[in-house]
Amino acid sequence: MENFISPDLEHLDLEKFMREALAEAEIAGQAGELPIGAVLVLDGEIIARGRAHHNEHKSQISHAELNTLLNGGEKLWTEYERAILFTTVEPCPMCLGAVVMADVPHIIYALNDKVVHSKLSVETNPFIRRHIKSYYGGILEDESAEIVGRYNPRIVKYIQTGSA
Fold first, then answer.
1. For residues 115 and 158, is the Cβ–Cβ distance under 8 A?
2. How many CB atoms lie within 10 A of CB 12?
3. At 163, phi and psi to the nearest 5?
4. Which H or E run includes 81?
5. Residue 102 pairs with which residues in a beta bridge?
6. What's the N-to-C CA distance of the chain in angstroms?
7. How many Cβ atoms are within 10 Å of 118's Cβ, its own excluded?
């Protein structure tokens, strides 16, 4: 499946916002967490930030994307139709589902994940496809891989190749 991006996003500096998500990933890595970060953007402004907190929260579902959505608050609740999620690694199926259920129409990610097959879900599931206007990866992919690899070389290999 090819990347697709809505013309609504042509004016945005995608790298600028991805750098903010990468900063969240760096903070997560420094804290001993899986180095994945995300930001939620509305009308060119970051309205929420999040990063992985698996260890701190003692929760397998404390993913960066989910935490970011939960931090979206009133603005996400009322203005979701223009929201954009930037994340440093392609969303897993749980996070993709959370984005769909939050009605966030745009997902921009850095590192393609050969394990999760979320691209296939977006392409083949009519319910998901109906909600997603943009699903675009590879923005600062090398920078994301470098951060993940610095904190967890085994996991970056798994993400990039699909095998341990």
1. yes
2. 16
3. -135, 150
4. none
5. none
6. 24
7. 24
**Ramachandran angles phi, psi of 137, nearest 5°:** -120, 165
pLDDT at 41 over 90: yes
Q: DSSP per residue over 9-65, as a string?
A: GTTS-HHHHHHHHHHHHHHHHHTTS---EEEEEETTEEEEEEE--HHHHT-TT--HH
Looking at residue 93, its pLDDT comes to 96
Which of 66, 68, 112 shows the shortest CA–CA distance to 89? 112
Answer yes or no: are the C-beta atoms of 35 and 29 closer than 8 Å.
yes
Structure tokens at 149: 């690899």
Tokens of 20: 């903010």
Question: Which neighbouring-strand residues pair with 87?
Answer: 38, 109
20 included as an active-site residue: no
Cα 41 → chain centroid: 12
Marked catalytic residue, from 24, 65, 90, 143: 65
Whole-model pTM: value is 0.96
pLDDT computed for residue 10 by the predictor: 86
d(CA 117, CA 152): 21
